[in-house]
């Protein structure tokens, strides 16, 4: 227990970079005593005007300490789940559009089925770093690049062009792709940040002759839910995922034969959570709801 608590204190203080000289020296000595490395006469900190910073050896210890606590957290989860009942905290990150329009309306069933799971939902337009932000599950619109993340494709999302009945009555129905140039177009934009989706603004290019300039957006919005609301209120036409539009009778599919890029939806989690009962429970819930839904 002494070894664990001392190293945890060291990791937090080293990460903050604000330890005082006297406290840093005492902490370093305590860690050295606990780990049997005092005889190496190794300096873990070096002094500067505002306190202490890590030496090269200190950085090594800090990085190894972080690994230890990742393993300890994983072990703690596994021990708790020996009860054979899914329980504990489960944090999930996904996009604003998918979370707001698809996941939230269905999550009540999961909460009822697993009352011992404390669910935390985070919706954002950029994929979060699951390790740094401490998310258990990500629902992403692409396959993850990190090798230490487990990924399962759970759906494929297709995009089409949509407009409201109000807008069509005002501006008319385009019958050819080239006629989109005569309409107000709303596109997805996330300035300064990478988008979780690729080729989001194909609407500006489809039907444009080679060598001709692409169309310009009349309105740019930084999340899909905002795009949907703008289309519903008659602002213009936009490319939307089909799952957001079903059951909205006042929206019309424009040029239904024109299909945008398809995106794979992946459930992503860290390999340390393999076999976790709450991960299995959430995966099974997702697959059941997806089977019931027509993407």
| Span of the ends, CA to CA | 51 Å
Order of the strands making up the biggest sheet: 4-3-5-12-6
What does the overall shape look like? Answer: globular
**In DSSP terms, counting alpha (H) and pi (I) runs of 4 or more, how many helices?**
9
Helix content: 25-40%
Q: Strand portion, in percent?
A: 15-25%
The average pLDDT value, as a whole number, equals 80
Low-confidence stretches: 1-14, 18-29, 31-36
SSE order, one letter for each helix or strand: HHEEHEHHEEEEHEEHEHEEH
Overview of this protein structure:
Helix content is 36%, strand content 22%. The protein is α/β, with parallel strands linked by helices and 295 residues long. A five-stranded mixed β-sheet has the order 4-3-5-12-6, with helices on one face. A five-stranded mixed β-sheet has the order 9-8-10-7-11. Strand 1 and strand 2 form a beta hairpin. The longest helix is centred in the first third of the chain and has 25 residues, at 56-80. It is globular. The two termini are 51 Å apart. Residues 1-14, 18-29 and 31-36 have low confidence and may be disordered.
């Amino acid at each position: 227990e002494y070894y664990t608590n001392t190293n945890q204190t060291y990791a937090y203080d080293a990460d903050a970079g604000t330890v005082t000289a006297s406290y840093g020296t005492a902490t370093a000595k305590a860690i050295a005593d606990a780990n049997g490395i005092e005889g190496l006469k190794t300096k873990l900190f070096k002094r500067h005007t505002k306190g202490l910073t890590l030496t090269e050896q200190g950085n090594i210890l800090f990085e190894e300490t972080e690994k230890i606590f990742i393993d300890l957290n994983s072990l703690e989860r596994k021990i708790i789940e020996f009860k054979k009942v899914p329980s504990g905290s489960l944090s999930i990150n996904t996009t604003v559009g998918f979370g707001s329009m698809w996941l939230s309306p269905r999550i009540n069933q999961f909460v009822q089925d697993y009352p011992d799971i404390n669910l935390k939902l985070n919706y954002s337009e950029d994929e979060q770093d699951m390790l740094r932000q401490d998310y258990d599950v990500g629902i992403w619109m692409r396959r993850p690049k990190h090798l230490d993340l487990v990924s399962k494709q759970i759906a494929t999302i297709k995009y089409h062009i949509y407009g409201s009945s109000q807008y069509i009555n005002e501006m008319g129905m385009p019958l050819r792709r080239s006629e989109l140039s005569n309409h107000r177009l709303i596109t997805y934009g996330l300035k300064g940040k990478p988008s979780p989706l690729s080729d989001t603004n194909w609407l500006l290019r489809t039907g444009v002759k080679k060598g001709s300039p692409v169309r310009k957006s009349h309105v740019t919005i930084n999340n899909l839910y905002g795009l949907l609301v703008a289309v519903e209120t008659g602002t213009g036409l936009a490319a939307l995922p089909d799952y957001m539009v079903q059951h909205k009778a006042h929206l019309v599919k424009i040029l239904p034969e024109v299909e945008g890029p398809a995106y794979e939806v992946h459930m992503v989690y860290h390999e340390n959570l393999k076999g976790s009962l709450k991960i299995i429970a959430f995966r099974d819930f997702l697959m059941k709801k997806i089977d019931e839904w027509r993407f």
